[in-house]
Amino acid sequence: MAGLDGRAVAEGTAAAETKAAAPAAVPLRVPGAVDDHDLPWASDGEANVPYVFHDPAHEGRMTGFEYDLMQAISARMGRHGRFVQNGWDGLIPGLSRDLYALVIDGIEMTPEHKAAVLFSRPYYVTVDRIVLRNGETGLDTLEALKGHVVGTIKSTAAERLLLDHDPANVRSYDEETNLFSDLKNGRLDAILIDEPIALYYRSDDLKLVGPPIGRVAYGIAFPKNNPGLRDAVDSVLGDLISDGTLHQILARWNLWTPQMADYTGDQSLLSVKPTAWTDYRQTMERMSGSSMKAMVQRYVSFLPLVASGALMTLGVSALAMVLAVAAGLVLALARAYGMAPLRWLAGLYVEVVRGTPLLIQVLFIFYGLPAFGLRLSPFAAGVLSLGLNYAAYEAENYRAGLLSVPRGQMEAAIALNMTHIQALRLVIVPQAFRTVVPVMTNDFIALLKDSSLVSVITLTELSQTYIRLSSTYYDYIGTGLMVATAYLLVGLPFVRLARMAEKRMGRVVAKGHH
Description:
elongated
């Protein structure tokens, strides 16, 4: 969420306002739409107050001033706006792969961003502000901040200002909550941040100081190859600005500013009360309290979200492990008993997969494969990436198990007139499988934890649930204990089942020796 100087705002506005609305006779191309009335749009709704975020009073419901704006735009276009969650770093890649039609997430209209996407006219113009602890004084200008440790959000105009001014003392963050926590804890001397974020994240022990700095403008992003949809949305956005609808939305969130009045030319004074702002503040005060009643209420409200995250983690992990076991066995047999080309290909697969980061593989399967015509859902991509990754490790486990079976077992099976395949299926593989069961259990527990990486492709599992809840309420301990317990409860039954299977297989083998 970041900024733009006055020149860039003017240029962005002028460029957008020269665009006419798409002719009604020309059907709009809406990537990701499930029908003619669908308008899928993406944002990062995790710890993204006040843009698009989970309502702390009803965690299953999305809210925010950008959310309200998209509802208004969709209604004016005669469509149903459908929110699609994606992480900040994946928003534009997902847009380029036609996973959704547009992105709105406080994206600054910089020349670099304009080179990658099409923008609407700005829908919000604001400034950067300095935030200090209440006891601090004298750090109210950029010049005064020099030599002090200052935090901001990465890849923003505020970050560029700070890096140009005093690069040695800049600390960049991914999450606003971590940024403000470090200021409170004394790890930072000051924060430079967009005014809406400062307004909503500032607590009673922090203060805004100094004059506004710079100029920040946000635009709605579209793929480069879809100017028709951009022009249609831009035309509706212009109407919302002209008739005062945008003013009303921002007033409800206490975000109408002199900068917006100057930008839109709307100097009117509305009687709209900041109800959304008031509701948010009251809910946070009630839910973030340290009393026993407030804590119990908070943790009870977390249970459905943690349960939902646990089910997603379990589903992805279990299916991925099934795939890993099947594919790993095939790879192990190919390496141990296959022809030379098969052994070489299986060995190459194992080394490549084990030698590259799982995160890169997840991103490649989800964002890279569509370039080859293979577009997978986030769930399918998560299962496939985890399964194929762990298949390489399982293959080495199984190969070790196969090699641990005495060679005489194969020779004896062949002597009993079994085919090579029958000997493997009935004699060798069962003995090898028993050897690797304990290792498989450890791998499944590891896979459960690695499933957290699928959060980068829009799946909300346990770790993403923890990030959302802890960053919303600044509660890292209680929420962390709840999520850790959920991981344990998900994994323990499988450990128990593995031990039972190991004992049963041991008895079967023991009977076979008599």
